[in-house]
Amino acid sequence: MPILSDEFYMQCAVDLALKAQNNGEVPVGAVVVDANGTVIGEGANATISNRDATAHAEILALRAAGQHMNNYRLPGCSLYVTLEPCTMCIGAIFHARLSRIMFATPDLKTGACGSAVDLVNHPKLNHHTQIEQGVLKETCSHMLSQFFKQKRQKVV
């Protein structure tokens, strides 16, 4: 399979975020892509439905990719995710040895790629991952804003 554009892979993550949203979850989706451009893992937030605090889209995508590769190490792979990963997810990403993270929109409250904290550039860590952001930012930011706006309206 030829390597496709960042927009293509991020759109795959957006589609998964919509799936999460339809299940009442925070709309976050993630895909892991190998060096040949093949999607080898995907995840949609499922913390509520799985009753599992670790069921973030990134973690589920990493689990699926690890199963696909028969190895938890995923060097040369990229992660496309609709929202900046949190500290838990960055830890898993480092252990998986992903080469690249592309996230759509920053998470100013819990983002660990520089928005709330910057773990990806911490000098004591032995693995560093290339970080890029902004592909389909407006789409993902709007989806998240609308989701939380609707949640707040239901509470009132």
Structural notes for this entry:
There is one protein chain. The chain has 5 helices and 5 strands, in the order αββααβαββα. The chain is globular, with a radius of gyration of 15 Å. It has a 5-stranded mixed sheet. Helix 3 runs parallel beside helix 4. By secondary structure, it is α/β, with parallel strands linked by helices. Helices cover 40% and strands 17% of the residues. The mean pLDDT is 94. The protein has helices at residues 6-22, 47-50, 57-69, 87-96, 137-155; strands at residues 29-33, 39-44, 78-83, 100-105, 130-133.
N-to-C SSE string, H for helix and E for strand: HEEHHEHEEH
The averaged pLDDT comes out at 94
Helix content: 40-55%
Percent of residues in beta strands: 15-25%
List unreliable stretches of 5+ residues. none
Numbering strands along the chain, what is their spatial order in the largest sheet? 2-1-3-4-5
Shape: globular
Structural class: alpha/beta
Spatial separation of the terminal alpha carbons? 49 Å
Sheet with the most strands?
Answer: 5 strands, mixed
Number of strands: 5
Radius of gyration: 15 Å
